[in-house]
Amino acid sequence: MRKKIIAGNWKMNVKPSETAALVKAIAEATKDYTNVDIVCCTPAIDVPAAVEACKGTQVKAGAENAHWEAQGAYTGEISTGMLVDAGAEYVIIGHSERRQYFGETDETVNKRARAVIAAGLTAIVCVGETLEEREAGKLNEVIERQMNVGLKDVTAADCAKLVIAYEPVWAIGTGKTATPDQAQEVHALIRATLAKLVGAETAETVRIQYGGSMKPGNAAELLAKKDIDGGLIGGAALKAADFAGIIAAAAQA
Ligand code: PEP
């Protein structure tokens, strides 16, 4: 039985001075849902405030990216050691916006994911196809490539610190959601691909989140599917009531 995990991806939306209030509102609204892992992944500059606000609550703080090198001349980057030092516990890696706008590749996803896991943080590794890829019949090929390259040399032991997020690019921030059956089909493919990499027994333990316009109104039917173990939430993570609504659905799934 995999514990459900709902993570918010705040993107570039919340200021440091606004962070504590949002985390506290989320913690207060979700305090009864102790059977769900709840994470707020924030801009790096918000992480210290998020960590502080998470203290004494069941909410955990995370970041939206991390570099693979421990330190050095990498202007604008954040190391895993910095995030550990600040008290973060999760890091999103390979979000489609990083891939689309910042040149992230499956190879850099792999380097970042391995560094995150080696630092003792949990990596939320994102995969997902564009609409063009889906319509061209390349869905399986794209997901398998993102998995095989992005998770190269990730071991079965590393999987204790791994979450995968399936985020169809066409569903992110668009209001279009994959149907529960469409999402389940890809989640099953992700688990089968992971089984080839780390063994079927380990693959069964890894949580696979769905991301793409998940809301309180559609979360329950997605989370009812066999291989959907949670959600990575963008827009709806910015309003405590909406985020809590999704977490309530996860608590009952
Ligand atoms: C995301 O950015 O990871 C995401 C799923 O966004 P949204 O929920 O807004 O579609």
Comma- or semicolon-separated keywords:
8 strands; single chain; binds phosphoenolpyruvate; alpha/beta; globular; 253 residues; TIM Barrel
What is the secondary structure topology, with strand pairs?
Blueprint: E1 4-9, H1 16-29, E2 36-42, H2 47-54, E3 59-63, H3 80-86, E4 90-93, H4 96-101, H5 106-118, E5 122-127, H6 131-135, H7 139-150, E6 162-166, H8 180-198, H9 200-203, E7 207-210, H10 216-223, E8 230-233, H11 240-252
Parallel strand pairs: 1-2, 1-8, 2-3, 3-4, 4-5, 5-6, 6-7
Helix pairs in contact: 1-2, 1-11, 5-7, 7-8, 10-11
This protein binds phosphoenolpyruvate.
Phosphoenolpyruvate binds next to strand 8.
Classify the beta-strand content into a percent band.
15-25%
Shape by Cα distribution = globular
Quaternary:
single chain
Strand tally, please? 8
Q: In total, how many domains does the architecture comprise?
A: 1
Structural class: alpha/beta
* Gyration radius from CA atoms, angstroms: 17 Å
CATH class identity: Alpha Beta
